[in-house]
């Protein structure tokens, strides 16, 4: 099942918000959501290229997006210093 682009934006934003809360990184809610969406897109592309499937549908997209968001937020925090 493929996630549509609008659902991808919403789920990616949720993943970014959750990652920001878990990692206690405060770029502001808007920036965390944007980083989350970018992280979700990148992570899903990497997971698909590596043929790794966590789960199907929106739950898989959320988990993969969360992982990508955590990594991207960590990198953004390092760059911000």
UniProtKB/TrEMBL annotation:
<keyword id="KW-0472">Membrane</keyword>
<keyword id="KW-1133">Transmembrane helix</keyword>
<dbReference type="InterPro" id="IPR007341">
    <property type="entry name" value="Transgly_assoc"/>
</dbReference>
<feature type="transmembrane region" description="Helical">
    <location>
        <begin position="59"/>
        <end position="79"/>
    </location>
</feature>
<feature type="transmembrane region" description="Helical">
    <location>
        <begin position="29"/>
        <end position="47"/>
    </location>
</feature>
<keyword id="KW-1003">Cell membrane</keyword>
<comment type="similarity">
    <text>Belongs to the UPF0410 family.</text>
</comment>
<feature type="transmembrane region" description="Helical">
    <location>
        <begin position="6"/>
        <end position="22"/>
    </location>
</feature>
<keyword id="KW-0812">Transmembrane</keyword>
<dbReference type="GO" id="GO:0005886">
    <property type="term" value="C:plasma membrane"/>
</dbReference>
<protein>
    <submittedName>
        <fullName>Putative membrane protein YeaQ/YmgE (Transglycosylase-associated protein family)</fullName>
    </submittedName>
</protein>
<dbReference type="Pfam" id="PF04226">
    <property type="entry name" value="Transgly_assoc"/>
</dbReference>
